[in-house]
Every structure is written in structure tokens, then in C-alpha cells.
Design a protein that fits this description.
Blueprint lengths: L3 H9 L3 H8 E2 L4 E2 L10 E4 L10 H16 L3 E5 L17 H12 L6 E5 L8 E6 L15 E2 L2 E2 L6 E5 L2 E5 L2 H9 L9 E5 L2 E4 L10 H12 L5 E5 L6 H14 L5 E6 L3 E4 L2 E4 L7 H12 L10 H13 L4 E6 L7 H8 L6 E6 L8 E5 L5 H14 L3 H4 L3 H10 L4 H10 L3 H14 L3 H15 L2 H13 L3 E2 H8 L3 H13 L3 E6 L4 E6 L1 H12 L4 H13 L7 H11 L5 H14 L3 H14 L4 H15 L2 H14 L5 H15 L6 H15 L4 H14 L2 H8 L8 H17 L3 H13 L7
Parallel strand pairs: 3-4, 13-18, 13-19, 14-17, 17-18
Antiparallel strand pairs: 1-2, 4-6, 5-6, 7-8, 9-10, 11-12, 15-16, 20-22, 21-22
Helix pairs in contact: 3-4, 8-9, 11-13, 11-14, 13-15, 14-16, 17-18, 17-20, 18-19, 18-21, 22-23, 23-24, 24-25, 25-26, 26-27, 27-28, 27-29, 28-29, 29-30, 29-31, 30-31, 31-32
Length: about 750
């Protein structure tokens, strides 16, 4: 039998035939001896879920398995094998790659795709299904959507981290996910960086799967290794793939541990600051910005405090750049208007190197210029096929190579134009006709880019154009609420429109750890084109900026303390749900229960699985609103999500039991006892919990357990506790016919003493 290492290679290369040979003997088809088990790399399923309504939970579970495999080492889901005996029974529900990815897309997004094939199709159409999940490239991916509720709990929630542990898929949520990421040093992509760890920051690529360009990749690789080259300079028109190649090379350098540190910056023309949105403020606008980033990433932050710029340059060069083998990645250099930055890059001390992208060459000393042009024919076909699969345009992916060549040639084999072309395609016939029209225009280079974008943009309804304008003004990722505020649109409407824009390959989405939610952005070239449209509408930019400034400043919040908290949440500076809960607590302190309720709801919208918020909300309804039904609901949710051990669990279950006891529900005392038992397991010395549990047992008629739980309280030092316990124990002993013990309790009640039972 082949090794797991061989299987991992087959999974990485999507080699279906080799995977089938790894697992199965043929004639008749059966699982090989030694593979009657599930593992970190594979999982058996009896059937593919049906696509009809009512199977959403089953598909959410499949999506969790897919994310778990992706975040670990990749894996394969094998359908048609019965778990009980590992016999082949065959899948009955038909599926293919497009259908499979469509069903899991709401949870997985479109950063990667799962290949699905039907093997050994029998006469009755039962088959063996093989779904191959690739391993993560560099960073773990979190769930991008909510699943249905299963047994009172959402099986999968936006922001969940799924991992594979042995033969099991584990779903980590909230604090548990953060703890796992921290303790295991799991790289996670944030809004700007795909690698963000001590000593290393790498910009997040805009590609889903890198199209290897043999000649260019080899040239860049050689340039980064050459002792004659300080700076590798990638030049070419927008959308041709400069940033993709630079990201690929930088990630390759990171994975191979070729450098001691990596610093990445991109020159954006707009940014969000602590005072709101300001134009012409970039993450890289000067040499000072680059020096600060170098100091922060490498851990020499004290050097960034040197006020004199020449002295700071000298210190950074002598203490960092000349002492450690580092790589500086500077993207979009043409937008930086600072001659000192160019001079700095031209005078880097070895062993530090740099890789930069720009439309035109800016660095000329000790630089290796690498002109980046369109794809060659094979690269273009490969890119078109993959992009069509990811965009669920299988009618494009399945065209003949001759037809694909016609499409890519009409796009001048420019990657971004090909993406836009596929995004517009509604059928194979229409795509081929559009290719003829595009080729007849005879446009090339920048002119072709702008012409192609105009065709896409012109087809969009006004609301979608408004969304793009908001994103172009920022040049960074935004949560859906910020887009809605900037566009003066309802949040639910923006959500619907964004789904359509993603089909056009214009908008990108990524789970943002700061916002704890999905955030959206435009590609740089797209942003540039849209910004031109904004400039053509007098007053539009200032109106959007004012709405966004007001939203980020939380001007609708009257109380200054609350406003400050909301500002931090909206900027991603504070844990959103906990900060919103703090606003709610402040509102309670001032007697504003309406505002408190509003902010508790907002906190739960951010994180439905936060047991802390559910517990606080339950207490709010219990003590402030006196609405026990809603209090019970939130205590239940808190109990579901609270840690499995410890005092927090004990406290939540104790309070949950207390409110159930007073609820007036049928079997209220039995239900309350179930929760109080869990609490007492965690904290056996909790007198309040013990007494409440005993009380519930007595009222539920479970006298034996009542006596067992309450007897230790007869020795309690508090006279009040003992007095409250006597009547309950007397009832238990009376019903249990414990005559002597009952008499003893009566005597204790009579004389007011409390020496316990002998």
C-alpha cells in the first residue's frame, strides 16, 4: 500500500486516478485492507447530499469537512462507502464539480475549488464520488457564511475555523478559534496580508490559484538570488500580473526560509485614519513609511523614533539591512512621489534585497528589470480554464482549446481582461460572439483594459456602480455596513448586489480578523477605473466621504463614551461584540434600555456564538425587562457555547437553572435540575447551586437525590443556610420513611440549632 505522503501528493496534484488506486481494489470494487478507517487525509461518506430543499445542514457539514481538509493538509471526501462496514454501496444523488462547489460556496467562498468526479458508474447510476480538496497555500481560511441551526445551534458560523484532527473535523468558534491560532502559530490572512507573523509580512495575492509562468518565474527567481542584483523590478501595464508574480516570488521566499525577515507595503492613494477618511494618505507614501514598517516588522521599533531622517536611515541600514538577510516587497511603486525612497532602494546594503512592481521602471541602479507582458498561449488557456471553473462558468471551461484560444487572443491574453470577459459570459455561444466583437475593435494594452472595463461597468445597474464607487474611494477592504453607509443603501440590499458583482470578477471578498466578518475590496486597476467615474460626478466624492466619515465617527450615537466605543468597533480596533456589549452596559447604567437592547442585538449579529453576550443579554431580559422567555432563550445559547470546563460553565448553568426554576414551564424543576447538576459538577462547593438543586429535586419529587445533595449543607457554617435546608430535608426524609432522620430535623427546627445529623 502506498504511503500517506504519496496520497498527499496525489491530492495536491488532483490526480483522481492515483487516488482511486490508492484506496480501492477492482473487480469487485472494495476498499483495500488497512484502509478500513478514516484519517486526517480522507473521509468516507455513504452518499452525496441531495440538492433539494431541506438538505442545507448536510451541505454545511460537507463544507466544514472541506474547510478542515483545506486548513490542514488537503484531503479527499469519498462518497458511496458505508461507514459501518466500509463496503461500496454507491452514491445515489448526482453531482459534478460545478454543483458541488455551488453548494458549499456560501461557506467556503471562491478562494479555491474542489474537483469532483464520478467513478465506477453502475447500471443503476450509483457511483463512487471523489471530491479532492487542495491544501491551503499559505493561510488558513475561515467559514464565510452561516449554516442552518442544528439542535438549537448553528452548525457552521461565519468566522469558524475548521481543522482536521485525526479522523475528525473540529469546528473552533470564537475564543477557542483564537486560542488555537495563537497557540499553534497558524497563519491567517487578514485584509492586507496573507502572512502576518513576527518578522514576516507578505501582501495578500489577488489570485485564487497561481498560473505558473515558467520563463518569468525563473527570471525572477534568479534575480532574487543574484549577488549582482539589489532590486528586482517588475514592470508592465495594469492587470498584466505584476503583483501576482511578485506575491508568488515573495511567498516562495517565505516558504523556503530564504530570508530572515520580509517587509511588504503597497502604495495606495486613499486610507482610513483615526480621524476618518482622508484622500491622498497611503500606506506607503514616503521613505519614512518604509523605514517605520521595516522597524516594526523586524522588532527594532525604537529606531523608528529617531526624528532626524538621515540618522534614521543610517541606523536602519547599519542595524537591520546590513546585518540580516531581508526582502523588501514594494507594490505599486509608480504612485509614490518621493525621490528619497527611490535613492534608498538603489543603495540597499547586501544581504537585503527588494522586489518592486511599477508600470514603468523607477529603480535603475543595481536593478534587474523584468518586463511583464501578457500570457503565452498555454498560460492563457490554463488561466481561462481555472478562472471559469472558479466562477462556475463550466460552459467556458469545457470549450475546445481552439475556442479558448480565440477567447484569450481577443483579450490580448491579459489576465484581468480575461477575468472580466469570463465574468460577463452568460453562455458559450455569447462568449465566442463577444470575442469576435472585441477582436474587431483592435485595441491593445491600456486602451484594451479601459475599453473592456467600460463594457462591464456600463452593464451594471446604478446601485452596483454606487457600491464600486465607495470601494474605489477607500482603496482598502470594507465591511458591508461601511459600504452601505457610503452608498446610502440598506445593508441587505448591498449584500444582494455584492453577490452579483462577484460574478463579474470585480469585487473580492476575504474574512477580516479585525472586523470578525467578511470584507470586500476592488483590484487596484479596477479601483483606478472606477475612481475616474467618481471624478466625473461633481460632488459625489465629497458626499460619499461625508457619509463614511459620519459613520466611522458614529455621529448618530449621542453619548460620548458610547460613541468612542462604536468608533473603535467600526474601525476594527476593538473586539466588535465585546465593545458593543460595553456600549449596552453603559446604556443600562443611564436607564436607556432601548439603546441597550439595540446594542446587545448588534453584538450578537457580530458573533452569534459569544456565550458572554448571550449571558449578559439573558441577564438583561431577566432583571431589566422581566421577560423570562427571552432570558431562557439566551441562557440556553450561552450554555451551548460556554467553555466545556471551569467556573464560567458553572456560573452559566447555575443561572440557567435558576431562571428555569422560576419559569412556570411544565417540568420546570426537572429541567432546572438538569442545568444545576452540570453547574455543581464544576463547582461542588457552590452552596447556592447545591441548595437550588436540592430544592428542584424536592419539588420534582426526586427525594432520594434531594437528600443526597442537601445533607452536606447541615454542616454549613451559615445558620441561615442550615435553616433554609431543614424544611427541604424534612420533606425528603418523610417521603423516604427515614423516621429517625426526620425526627432529628424536627428537633433542630424546634430549638433553632444546627449541629447536623449523627
Amino acid at each position: 500500500m502506498s504511503s500517506p505522503q504519496a496520497l498527499a501528493k496525489h491530492i495536491a496534484t488532483r490526480n483522481t486516478a492515483a487516488i482511486v488506486d490508492f484506496f480501492f481494489e477492482r473487480s469487485p470494487l472494495k476498499v483495500k485492507y488497512g484502509l478500513y478507517k478514516e484519517d486526517e487525509l480522507w473521509d468516507y461518506k455513504e452518499d452525496v447530499p441531495a440538492t433539494t430543499k431541506g438538505n442545507e445542514a448536510a451541505w454545511a457539514k460537507i463544507a466544514a469537512d472541506v474547510l478542515a481538509f483545506y486548513n490542514t493538509r488537503g484531503g479527499v471526501l469519498i462518497f458511496g462507502i458505508r461507514d459501518a462496514d466500509f463496503n461500496f454501496v454507491g452514491s445515489t444523488h448526482k453531482a459534478d464539480t460545478k454543483l458541488f462547489n455551488d453548494k458549499i460556496r456560501r461557506y467556503v467562498g471562491d478562494r479555491f475549488w474542489v474537483s469532483f468526479s464520478r467513478e465506477f458508474i453502475r447500471a443503476d447510476q450509483r457511483y463512487l464520488g471523489i471530491a479532492i480538496v487542495p491544501p491551503k497555500a499559505h493561510a488558513a481560511l475561515r467559514a464565510m457564511g452561516d449554516g442552518p441551526t442544528v439542535n438549537g445551534r448553528k452548525y457552521l458560523k461565519t468566522g469558524d475555523l475548521c481543522i482536521r484532527v485525526g479522523d475528525t473535523t473540529k469546528i473552533l468558534r470564537g475564543a477557542e478559534a483564537l486560542s488555537y491560532v495563537t497557540n499553534n502559530n497558524v497563519p491567517e490572512a487578514i485584509s492586507q496580508y496573507i502572512v502576518n507573523e513576527p518578522g514576516f509580512r507578505v501582501l495578500r495575492p489577488d489570485y485564487r490559484e497561481f498560473t505558473h509562468r515558467k520563463s518569468l518565474c525563473s527570471t525572477i527567481d534568479d534575480a532574487l538570488k543574484s549577488n549582482r542584483t539589489f532590486v528586482t523590478s517588475l514592470t508592465g501595464i495594469g492587470g498584466v500580473g505584476k503583483t501576482a508574480l511578485a506575491c508568488w516570488a515573495t511567498l516562495r521566499a517565505h516558504d523556503s526560509k530564504a530570508f530572515d525577515y520580509i517587509v511588504s507595503l503597497t502604495a495606495k492613494d486613499r486610507a482610513l485614519t483615526s480621524t476618518g477618511i482622508v484622500p491622498l494618505t497611503s500606506t506607503l507614501s514616503s521613505l519614512s513609511d518604509l523605514l517605520t514598517e521595516i522597524c516594526e516588522v523586524t522588532g527594532f521599533s525604537e529606531l523608528s523614533q529617531i526624528e532626524d531622517l538621515p540618522a534614521r536611515i543610517k541606523a536602519v541600514k547599519s542595524s537591520i539591512l546590513s546585518q540580516f538577510r531581508g526582502l523588501l516587497f514594494v507594490d505599486n511603486l509608480e504612485t509614490v512621489d518621493d525621490p528619497q525612497l527611490i535613492s534608498f532602494l538603489e543603495d540597499l546594503p547586501l544581504p537585503t534585497r527588494a522586489i518592486v512592481t511599477s508600470r514603468k521602471s523607477r529603480v535603475r541602479v543595481a536593478a534587474m528589470p523584468v518586463p511583464v507582458g501578457p500570457f503565452n498561449e498555454n498560460e492563457a488557456i490554463q488561466f481561462l480554464t481555472h478562472t471559469a471553473r472558479v466562477r462556475r462558468k463550466d460552459y467556458i471551461a469545457e470549450l475546445s482549446d481552439v475556442e479558448k484560444t480565440r477567447l484569450t487572443d481577443s483579450c490580448d491574453r491579459v489576465p484581468l481582461v480575461i477575468e472580466w470577459f469570463i465574468g460577463r459570459a452568460r453562455s458559450a455561444e455569447k462568449a465566442l460572439k463577444d470575442a469576435e466583437t472585441l477582436a474587431a475593435e483592435g485595441k491593445h494594452g491600456e486602451e484594451l483594459l479601459e475599453f473592456s472595463f467600460r463594457r462591464v461597468y456600463g452593464e451594471l445597474p446604478e446601485k452596483q456602480q454606487s457600491i464600486l464607487k465607495v470601494l474605489s474611494l477607500m482603496g482598502t477592504q470594507l465591511p458591508i455596513e461601511a459600504i452601505a453607509a457610503g452608498g446610502d443603501l440598506p445593508v441587505h440590499e448591498v449584500a444582494d448586489q455584492i453577490e452579483e458583482l462577484k460574478e463579474y470578477s470585480i469585487i473580492e471578498s476575504q474574512y477580516d480578523l479585525n472586523y470578525r466578518d467578511i470584507a470586500y475590496s476592488l483590484l487596484p486597476v479596477t479601483s483606478t477605473f472606477v475612481y475616474k467615474e467618481v471624478s466625473r460626478s461633481p460632488g459625489h466624492e465629497s458626499a460619499v466621504r461625508k457619509r463614511l466619515n459620519d459613520w466611522y465617527q458614529a455621529k448618530e450615537v449621542v453619548d460620548p463614551a458610547q460613541r468612542e466605543l462604536v468608533q473603535k468597533v467600526r474601525r476594527g480596533e476593538r473586539n466588535p461584540e465585546l465593545a458593543l456589549a460595553e456600549v449596552a452596559r453603559n446604556a443600562i447604567a443611564t436607564g436607556d434600555l432601548e439603546t441597550a437592547e439595540q446594542f446587545y442585538k448588534a453584538a450578537l449579529e457580530r458573533n452569534q456564538s459569544s456565550w458572554q453576550i448571550h449571558r449578559e443579554f439573558a441577564e438583561f431580559y431577566r432583571h431589566k425587562r422581566h421577560e423570562l422567555g427571552l432570558a431562557i432563550h439566551h441562557y440556553k445559547q450561552a450554555a451551548i457555547n460556554v467553555p466545556k470546563h471551569g467556573p464560567d460553565r458553572a456560573k452559566v448553568y447555575r443561572e440557567y437553572g435558576m431562571v428555569l426554576r422560576d419559569s412556570g414551564l411544565p417540568n420546570a424543576h426537572r429541567q432546572a435540575a438538569e442545568q444545576l447538576e452540570i453547574s455543581l459538577e464544576q463547582t461542588p462547593n457552590d452552596v447556592i447551586c447545591r441548595h437550588a438543586l436540592g430544592d428542584c429535586y424536592v419539588k420534582a419529587g426526586v427525594y432520594g437525590k434531594g437528600a443526597e445533595v442537601l445533607e452536606p449543607l447541615l454542616e454549613h457554617q451559615s445558620h441561615k443556610t442550615r435553616e433554609k435546608t431543614y424544611p427541604l430535608l424534612l420533606t425528603c426524609y418523610t417521603y423516604l420513611s427515614e423516621t429517625l432522620k426526620a425526627a432529628k430535623i424536627r428537633s433542630l427546627i424546634g430549638n433553632g440549632s444546627g449541629n447536623g445529623l449523627s
